[in-house]
Amino acid sequence: MPIRLFDSLKRETRELRPSQPDGVYRFYNCGPTVYAPAHIGNFRTFVVNDIIRRMLELEFGADKVKHVRNLTDVDDRTITQAKKENRPLGEITAHWTKLFHEDCDALNLLRPHVEPTATGHIAEQVGMIEQLMQRGHAYAAADGSVYFKIASFPGYGGLSRIRERELLVTDAAADSDHKNSVGDFALWKAYKPEDDGAVQWPGPRGAAAGRPGWHIECSAMSRKHLGETIDLHTGGVDLLFPHHENEIAQSECCTGALFAHHWYHSEHLLVNGTTMSKSKGNYFTVRDLLAKGATPAAIRYALLAGHPRKQLNFTLDSLHAAEKAIATLRAFRTSLPASGGDAATFAPVFAALSDDLNTPGALGALFTVVNKGTAGVDLPSFDRVCFALGLKLDAPAAPKAEAPAEVAALAEKRWAAKAAKDFKAADALRAEITAAGWQMLDRKDGYSLEPLKK
Ligand SMILES: [Zn+2]
Description:
Layout: E1 4-7, E2 12-15, E3 25-29, H1 40-60, E4 65-69, H2 76-85, H3 89-106, H4 122-134, E5 138-140, E6 146-148, H5 164-167, E7 185-190, H6 193-196, E8 210-212, H7 214-226, E9 232-236, H8 240-255, E10 263-266, E11 269-271, E12 274-275, H9 286-291, H10 296-303, E13 312-314, H11 316-334, H12 347-354, H13 359-372, H14 379-389, H15 405-419, H16 423-435, E14 438-443, E15 446-451
Parallel strand pairs: 3-4, 3-9, 9-10, 11-13
Antiparallel strand pairs: 1-2, 5-6, 6-7, 7-8, 11-12, 14-15
The protein binds zinc ion (ZN).
The site of zinc ion has 3 residues, from loops.
C-alpha cells in the first residue's frame, strides 16, 4: 500500500517513492544534541520517525531503506555543558549518547543504519564551507568566522515562508556582530578561548581556527552518507526554522542539486496541557517515567496516541490508559493461533498508517479488531502490525517485586481507610505494612508497593 505523507515544503500529502535507480529510499532524521537527557517530547519525534522507518521497510523491503540519524556532539550547548562540568567535551557527549541509546532501546526504536557525529565529519563540513565561499555564497568576517550570505540564494524561505522583515527579529541576529546582513547565519565560528575551551579545529581556507555552526553539520553528514539528493528529511517542527531552512540553502548552493524530495515535521508534545519545563514540574524523561513504574511499551503507545502533526497532550492518566491498552494487546496475543488467519483483517490499520501516518486511527482500527475477538486473526498477521507500530509484546512485562498477598491486602485496606478519611486506621495499617518490610507509595490516583531497602 503506497505510503502518503504530508510534505512541509510543498504543503501537500504526497506518496513516498525512492527517487534513484537503485531503489534505495534515502531517509535523514535530525538526531539529538547530546548534552543532557532527551525528554519525552524529543522522543515523540523519534518514535514517529521510527514508524516511518518501519513503514518504509514494509513497503520497499528492509534492504531498500537507508536511514541516517546524526548526533550533534559539538555546538553551543554541548560546549557550554562541558565548561559547566569542567570536563572534556568528548566525555560529556559520550555519556549522554550512551543514555540516549538506552532510552531508544527501551522504546524499541530501530537503530539507524548510520549514526554520524558532527565531530567525526569536520573535514566534510570544512570542504562544504570552502565550496560555498568559492561560489560566492559565503564570506569570512573580520574575526575569521564564516557566514552564509542569504541574499545569494533566491530560494531562501521556501520551507518556512519567512519574510525578510521577519528575519530581522529572529535569533539569527544574536550570532555575531561581524556579519554583513542580520539574517546571515554562521557556517564556521572562529575560536574564542573564553567560550570554547579546548574545542577547535583548523578552519576553511581564508578563515580562522574554530568549529562548525550547527546547521552545516547536518548538510555535510547527509551528503556524505546519503548523497546530494535524499528522499526524505524529517525532524520536530521546532527545527523547521532556521535549521532546516538553512540546511536547504547550504546544500543546494553547494551542490546545485535538489537537497530533499520530501520534508516532514512532527508537532510538539505538551504535558498536562502546557509546554514542558522543569519549573512547572511537568518535565519528563523516559527514565523518569520508568522510575514511576511505567512500562516502555506503554510510553511508546502514549506517544502515538495523537496525530503526529498535531500537538499531543501527555498526562499520567494517558499513560495509565496506555498501560491498560498494552495489557489487553499482550493478553490478546497469547490467545492467537500460529496460522489460519486472514492478513486482510488488519488492512485498516495499515491504511491509517499509510494515510499521512495517522497513528491514532491505526490504534483505533487495531482495537476494533481486538474487540471483535480472535476469529480470523493469527500470530504472524498480528505481529506484522506490532512491527509497524514498534510495540514489543512478546517480551514479558518488566519483572517487579510482587508484594505477598497479606501485604497487598493490608495496602487495599489502608487505601480504603484513607479514602474514607479514617487517617488513624490508615496510619496503623501503614505501620503494619512497614513492619512486613514494604513501603506503600501513594499517588493521586493509586498506589504502589515497593520492598523496603535493607
Ligand atoms: Zn539537523
